[in-house]
Amino acid sequence: MKVLILTYYWPPAGGSGVQRWLKFVKYLQNFDIEPIVYTVDNASYPKEDISLINEVPKNILVLKQPIWEPTDLLFWKKITIKKRIFLMLQIVVFYHL
Alpha-carbon dihedral of residues 64, 66, 69, 73, nearest 10 degrees? Predict the structure, then answer.
């Protein structure tokens, strides 16, 4: 039997979400279930752990597809801390006028 696993978090991502799917894929094979992982190719992970790549079973199929990151639209993500502070100060000054 085959099972398709859809996940955003896959190595080289780090954290508990990755561990869960990685171990699940690893041990499904003990029950004669062939996992196929469908994940993103260009993810923007908050944490990375490249050592987890070595734990991916060699005999499973991992399909990767590039995606458009909705969080890229957030202008807060694109500006520096100094600019954020400057913008916040402008808002405070404007509010007090």
Answer: 170
48 phi/psi in degrees, rounded to 5: -130, 145
End-to-end Cα spacing for the chain: 68
For 47-86, write each residue's pLDDT tens digit.
889 999 999 999 999 999 988 876 666 655 555 666 666 6
CB atoms within 10 A of CB 2: 8
Q: How far is CA 65 from CA 57, 85, 92, in A?
A: 19, 37, 43
Q: Is 15 left (phi over 0), alpha (psi -120 to 50) or beta?
A: left
CA–CA separation, 3 vs 35, rounded Å? Answer: 5
Selection from 39, 41, 42, 32 nearest residue 18 by Cα: 39
